[in-house]
Design brief:
Elements (H helix, E strand, L loop, with lengths): L2 H12 L2 H17 L11 H26 L10 H13 L1
Length: about 90
């Protein structure tokens, strides 16, 4: 029921539909494995949203590391404005 909205959120954050779908799928898999640890099993949406945003941040960090390792020789899409902000927050917090 929540999947389409979560995929839309993830795709917006990472700037890529396929990566957004992968993030959401990973979140649902982790939720299923840890259902008994959920604070409110009757309303998993707050957990799902938080986990999707965190998963997107991780995907953006991985993409940034891969781009830095590959150098400027390989064609890769530039970071979106959202990705740049999230990466700068992570660098500032680290």
């Amino acid at each position: 029921m929540h999947r389409p909205g979560l995929v839309k959120l993830a795709a917006f954050i990472v700037g890529d539909q396929d990566t957004g779908e992968d993030v959401v799928q990973d979140v649902f898999t982790r939720l299923h494995q840890r259902w008994d640890m959920l604070a409110d099993p009757g309303d998993p949406l707050p957990y799902l949203r938080t986990a999707v945003v965190n998963g997107c941040r991780s995907a953006i960090r991985r993409r940034g590391r891969a781009q830095r390792r590959a150098g400027h020789d390989s064609p890769s899409p530039p970071l979106s404005a959202e990705e740049s902000v999230l990466l700068s927050e992570d660098i500032g917090a680290g």
